[in-house]
Every structure is written in structure tokens, then in C-alpha cells.
Design brief:
It is built from nine helices and seven strands. It is of the alpha/beta class. It has one domain: NAD(P)-binding Rossmann-like Domain (Rossmann fold). Strands 3-2-1-4-5-6-7 form a seven-stranded parallel β-sheet, sandwiched between helices. Helix 2 packs across helix 9 and helix 5 packs parallel to helix 7. The relative contact order is 0.14.
């Protein structure tokens, strides 16, 4: 029988308005993990800015968040475009007067053997994941530094310490974001900007493309290799994002919380040898 989990446990730990009137930008905020984070932020009082390339998805997500009582701004943004990112931050300040939290969640990934990875595939993923996170982070800092502080939360992966089979491009990009997290945590501590990361099992909450697995590998064996026997869920990642944005984590910076189903002790299974 599974251990009973109280779905309201977050609100036993955090005050119901832990992020009251805090302004948070969430990239890739219209669907999936970004929307899960936005939903939990809305429940604890944050004002939300959802940014992504598809405005119709953002507006649909915003309707549900407004039903929870949140103030929500949607901004069509391609994080690869520095001008669009600057405009997103500018609109945030125009609408809400400040910026307290940035969640760098926008991402992309596809699996392919490294020897077959195209030049375009390498650049596309690195431009979205690494360059996009940098664009948003540096633009956000232009507000957070004179404001006197802020929180930056990067959605990473376990690639920096374990690599990622069939995803050298994604592993390189995520490792860059991890290194940026560590570096800026130290460099910007004088500005009272805390920078942390979360490493969910990718692609958390999504259907795994089984065609990308080696022949003979069952996805259940991947889950079984995790100490929890399963990957983390979007809501669990969102709870961690609330923690990192709140004063409950005031003593934490430069750290990446591993939510890959506890720590990943093994590695992605290879195809059985013939």
C-alpha cells in the first residue's frame, strides 16, 4: 500500500500567502512544468508573468490561474531573442512595479545518437536552454540589483553530474545552466540575489518517447533504477520552486535540488548485449 501523501502538505509548511504580492516570471509557463509552478505560486499569493512563444496557450493557462485569484500577465516571448526578453522584463515592471522571482523553465529536448546530431540540432537546443536562460537572467538582474534582491530558479537536470545518453546537446546546455547557477550565486550574493536550481527527471510529467530508447530497454527498468522507483512529479517540482522562492530557503543559494526520484544512483540502461 503506498505511503499516504497529503496533497495540502505544502500549505502546512508554508504560510498560505508565502509569496504574497511577489512578482514572478515563469518562462515556458503556459504548459507542463511551467504551468504547474505557476499554479502553486498562484495558491501562495504570487503575481505571475507567463512567457512563451505561443500566446494562445499562455492565455488559456492564465484563465485558470485567474480563477485561483492570481493577477496574471502573459507575454509572447522567444527566449532566444534578447530583444523580446528585454521587452518581457520591461512589461513586467510596467505592470507590477517590480520583479522578485525568475523561473528559467523554457526548454527543448530531443534524443539522438551523438554521432548523428546535426549542427542545427546542437545550436537550437543550446540557444533555447543555455542562451535563453542567460538572456532572462541578465535582464532580470537589471531590475533585481537596484531593487535590492531577488530569486532566480533554474530548471536543470541531472546531466551535469551524470551526463545524458542520446542528448549530448541538452546535457551540455543544462550543464552550462548549472555552472551559471553556481557562479552567479556567489557573484550576486552582494546584491541579495539567490540563485538555485531544480533537477527533475526529464521529461517530467510528459509521455516518454520510447522510440528514443535503445532496443530491448523497458521504461519500467529506467524507473526501477531510481531509489523512489519513479520520477518526480510536476507538482513536487512546483513545491520545490515555492520553497526556493520563499523565505523558508533564505539560507540556500548555489544549490540544485535533485528531484529525479531521489538521487539517481545508476545510469540510463543500455540495450542488452547480444
Amino acid at each position: 500500500m503506498p505511503y499516504p501523501v497529503n496533497p495540502n502538505v505544502m500549505y502546512d509548511v508554508f504560510a498560505p500567502m508565502a509569496l504574497k504580492d511577489r512578482v514572478a516570471i515563469i518562462t515556458g509557463g503556459g504548459t507542463g512544468l511551467g504551468l504547474a509552478i505557476a499554479t502553486e505560486y498562484a495558491k501562495v499569493g504570487a503575481r505571475l508573468v507567463l512567457a512563451a512563444r505561443q500566446l494562445d496557450r499562455l492565455e488559456q493557462a492564465a484563465e485558470g490561474l485567474r480563477a485561483l485569484g492570481a493577477r496574471v500577465l502573459t507575454v509572447e516571448t522567444d527566449v532566444r531573442d534578447r530583444g523580446m526578453v528585454a521587452a518581457m522584463v520591461r512589461r513586467t515592471v510596467e505592470e507590477f512595479g517590480r520583479l522578485d522571482i525568475l523561473v528559467n523553465n523554457a526548454g527543448a529536448r530531443f534524443d539522438t545518437p551523438s554521432e548523428a546530431l546535426s549542427r542545427n540540432g546542437w545550436y537550437v537546443i543550446n540557444n533555447i536552454v543555455l542562451n535563453g536562460a542567460w538572456h532572462c537572467t541578465q535582464e532580470a538582474a537589471q531590475v533585481m540589483i537596484p531593487q535590492g534582491g531577488g530569486r532566480i530558479i533554474n530548471i536543470i537536470s541531472n546531466s551535469p553530474w551524470l551526463g545524458s545518453v542520446y542528448a549530448a546537446h541538452s546535457a551540455a546546455a543544462k550543464t552550462g545552466v548549472w555552472a551559471m547557477t553556481r557562479t552567479l550565486a556567489t557573484e550576486w550574493r552582494k546584491h541579495r540575489i539567490r540563485v538555485n536550481g531544480i533537477a527533475p527527471y526529464a521529461p517530467v510529467g510528459e509521455v516518454i518517447d520510447r522510440s528514443s530508447l535503445p532496443p530491448g530497454v523497458d521504461m519500467n527498468s529506467v524507473w526501477a533504477s531510481l531509489p523512489l522507483g519513479r520520477p518526480g512529479t510536476p507538482r513536487e517540482v512546483a513545491w520545490a520552486a515555492v520553497f526556493l522562492a520563499s523565505e523558508a530557503s533564505a539560507g540556500l543559494t548555489g544549490h540544485t535540488i535533485d528531484l529525479t526520484g531521489a538521487s539517481w544512483l545508476g545510469r540510463r540502461p543500455e540495450a542488452p548485449s547480444s
